[in-house]
Each structure stands twice: as C-alpha cells, then as structure tokens.
Amino acid sequence: MTGLSDARIMTGLAGIPTQVDVLVVGLGVTGAGVAVDAAARRLSVLAVDAHDVAFGTSRWSSKLVHGGLRYLASGQVGIAYESAVERGILLQRTAPHLVRPMPMLVPLTSNVSTPQAMLTAAGIEVGDLLRMVARTSAHVLPRPRRIPPQHALRWVPALRRAGLRGALLYWDGQLEDDARLVTCLARTAAAHGAVVRTRARVTAATGTCASLRDEITGSTLEVSTKAVINATGVWAGQLASDIRLRPSRGTHLVLRGEALLGLGAAFTVPVPGSASRWIFALPQSDGTIFVGLTDEAVEGDMPDVPEPTDAEIDFLLNVVSLSLEHPLRHGDVVGAFAGLRPLLDAEGHTADLSRKHAVRTSANGVVTVVGGKLTTYRRMAEDAVDATGITSSPSPTADLPLLGAAPAEELARIDGPARLVRRFGTEAPFVLAIARAVSRLPDQELLSPGPRGVTLAELIFGVSHEGAISADDLLDRRTRLGLVPADRDDALALANRALEIVGS
Ligand SMILES: Cc1cc2nc3c(=O)[nH]c(=O)nc-3n(C[C@H](O)[C@H](O)[C@H](O)COP(=O)(O)OP(=O)(O)OC[C@H]3O[C@@H](n4cnc5c(N)ncnc54)[C@H](O)[C@@H]3O)c2cc1C
Fold it and tell me: Does the C-beta of 64 come closer than 6 Å to ligand 1?
C-alpha cells in the first residue's frame, strides 16, 4: 500500500458484511487502531461507531504524544517506557505527518521551589534516558537542558520576570489534531480492507454475534463474527457489564495566540499544594493555545459531550496566571472543552489511578480494551487483537505508516498547500485533486483560508472520503473550528457549502 488511498469511511449499515472475522465497536483512537491492526493482519473487519469517528474522549485530549513524564513522577516506570516507545514509533515511523516534536518549558519562577526544580530536572533526565532506550533519535527529540532567564523569555515572553531563575527545556511529541489522527487511522484501516461505518450502533454483543442499529434509518442487522472487540471508552460497561469504570473529567481552555503573545513553546506551572500536578499552556499549529487540565471524578451516566464547569475554568486561569507578568482574564477565554478519561475502577483519587490499559475478556466472550491513552493506542490495539486468539500472525503496525505518513524531509518537499500538508501529509495533493474533481471550482476558491486557515478543499474531502455527513462532523471532528464557538459560527456557511457541493 502507498501513502495514498481512495479508501472511504461510510455511514449506516447498508451493504455491510454480515459475517466477519472481527467486529470493532467504537471509532475513537483505540477502536480505529484496533481496526488497523486487525485489517493489517489480513482479518476481515467491520468497525463501527454509534456517532462519528472521534466522537468520544479522543477529540478532547491535550493532543500530546508524550513520553510519560508524569508516570515517572508516580513511579510507574513501565507505563512511561511504553509511552516513550510508542511516541518514538509515531514520530519516526507511522505518523510523522501528524506528530511533531514540541519544546516544553518548566519556568523556574518563584512558585517553583529549588527542591521541586531539582526533582523535576531529575525526572526530565530519566525521561531522556527512556527516549534513548526507546531508540528515539536526539535529532527528533533534542536532549533536555537548563536555560537562562533571557532564553526562557524568548520561548515564553509572557512569563513573570521577577524571580525568574531560568527554565528547564525538554522536548515531547505533539499532535496536529487528535481527531485527525483518528480519522487517518480509520481511513488507513479501510485502505487495508476494513469496512468502516459511522452512525452504526452496536446494541448488544457476545463474542460471536452482535446486533447493530443504523442510527440514521433505524434499521437493524445481526452480524456473526469470530471476535467482538469493545473499544467504547467510557461507555465500555454498556456492552460488557463486568467492566467498571471510574471516569475523570479533564478540562482545557482555548485562548487566541494574542493572549500569550509570542508563545513558542509549551510551558508548565505547578498546582499550589501538590507535588505532582502541573498546568500546561500548549501552543497549537492553528494559532490557538490550550490551557489544561483538570482531573475531577465523574459519577452517574456518561454524557455524550461533557461540559467544563465554571470552577474548573477559574482554577485553570488562576494557576496559569501565577507564572505570568499579566494575569489572564475571563475575556481571554474564547472556548473551553472537557473530556472523560476511561479509567478502570480502583481505589484512590482519580488523578492517582493507573493509566495503564487493560484487555479483559468477559464471560460472554466480548474482548474489551480500555484505559491507557492516546499515545499508546497502537500497543492497546495489538494486545486486544492478540487477546481474541483468532490469529497467530504478529502485529505489523509498529512499521506500518498511516495514510499520508512520510519523513519530515519528504513532507517538506511536497508541492502542495502548507495547511493541507500539515493535516494530510503526502495525501495533500490527492485531497486537492478530489476537491477539484468534485467541485470544478478554481484553486483560489478551494484554498482560500477561512477561519483559522480552514479550506473548502479539506471540507469537501471530509464529505467525499471521511464520512462527514453534517456541519457538526466537519466543524467539530474533521476540523476543530468548533473548539471556538465564534470560529464555528463563521465557518458554518463554508461547511454547508462543502456538503451541498458533494451532495449535488
Ligand atoms: C482531558 C483529557 C486529556 C487527555 N490528553 C491526552 C494526551 O494529551 N495524550 C494522550 O496520550 N492521552 C490523553 N488522554 C487520554 C486519551 O484521550 C484517551 O485515553 C483516549 O482518547 C480514549 O480513546 P478511546 O478510543 O478508548 O475512547 P473514545 O475516544 O471515547 O471512543 C469511544 C467511541 O465508542 C463509541 N461508542 C460508544 N458506544 C458505542 C456503541 N454501543 N456502538 C458503537 N459505538 C459506540 C463512541 O461514540 C466513541 O466514539 C486524555 C484524556 C482526557 C480525558
């Protein structure tokens, strides 16, 4: 397979196979990863989501592909090592078009004590050791170092100057966009032969059969299969009643770039009174900045779309402002989003629960894969497919580039619009070619930058190849304009135009 494919995500149940090797339930990062793994092992695969690709937690992450520094802080070396390995695979082999190195700063301000700074520096050094053991080149993720105050201010000009002793600088991985990774995985699975459907809900399942409902037409269908893999995140207990979760909510704020002018690196601020909790400010490639994140236990039924609370917004603003020359204000917040971590039930505050993933086979034969994190989706997928016992073929995914993947030097040589290359890698010219063919519009119109740089070309491709059937799909998952309500309003007409163009 090349880095380019006409593979498509489709909606509903029409024409799906009723007998497959593997049924994958859920198209978050975990389920989409499972679909890639199973299809790449030459199993016949049907992968479905009740809503849309990346509808659940996977679109609400911090968009970091991290080496697990925070796990080191809590002594979970195994998880940190696994994260470092998977980070290296994504950065160097499978998705260098969507995952990039990002400088991270720990400013040594007056609210970071000297012992805290020494402990953090030691942790960063161990993290670098894990990078080496995981065989991630220092050309990709440079070695950490301490920098003087004037250098720190170059990376983060908004830092409070009084008492600034310098900063610790290290590098980690950052995603272009979590929902884009999931969409890319789902199309990669389709390129390897999987049938990928959204708006298709599994209403009941055992290890060998499942009942599905088309969420658009209401029609139902039975599918027989050798294995069912439940990758439904915080909803996993609905298909496997013996799986108990204790989700926790994490909230981020969205700021415009002007709120922290000149921000060239992510930076962290310690939460007062905690030895291990930090708040991040993370610059994004579209000019916005995320500030996160909280960790609040959630009880009761899981909402489809969790909402940040006012208290979380105040908390984030207050903590990050501790390190700034001028505190942030509510008026700087142009959006906020919250996600639910699918943590397995265990004793203790949710912030301390293990982030390790689990694969469990229920009495009815359903294999559930849950927990973990976005960074380790590939390993989770491999373990889940192994657990079905239906194939002895080893997983090839550690060396399987996703659609559009290529080394940075090759991506730099692509003759195509920069925004499309950033979001589609080597597929950028293909995305544009499809948009031209479908719309017959001039490039000037297809590539004219809309809010936060979005183009009509990518929206058309979202409808033609990525299964988008509504403005919500386009604005909230194929692009992330929906993270800022004002941008969403501004882009609505463009999204509807793309839907009309492909529909006509
Ligand atoms: C705030 C926050 C920040 C995070 N930041 C990071 C980070 O920076 N880096 C990192 O590595 N990890 C991060 N994580 C963890 C990571 O985001 C999650 O572990 C991961 O996204 C979970 O993905 P999933 O596919 O298991 O679940 P989900 O993304 O929730 O996917 C489950 C899917 O199942 C579908 N579904 C549910 N029921 C059914 C059904 N009956 N039939 C069909 N489909 C169904 C849903 O529609 C949904 O799309 C973060 C988590 C949170 C909450």
Answer: yes
Model confidence over 140-162: pLDDT tens digits?
A: 999 999 999 999 999 999 999 99
Query: Residue 23: CB partners within 8 Å, gap ≥ 6?
Result: 45, 46, 47, 48, 202, 205, 210, 223, 225, 227, 228, 229
The encoded tokens of residue 44 equal 């016949």
**Ligand 1 contacts CB of residue 236 (under 6 A):** no
Burial of 417 (0-12, 13-18, 19+ CB in 10 A): buried
CA of 111 to the centre of ligand 1 (A): 34
List, in sequence order, every residue forming a beta bridge with 438; answer none if it has no partner. none
Contact 85, 134 (CB under 8 A): yes
For residue 139, give the 3-state DSSP assignment.
coil
Residue 308 Cβ < 6 Å to ligand 1: no
Q: First vs last Cα of the chain: how many Å apart?
A: 31
- Condensed to tens digits (0 to 9), the pLDDT of residues 475-494 reads 999 999 999 999 999 999 99
- Interior angle at CA 277, CA 274 and CA 279, nearest 5: 125
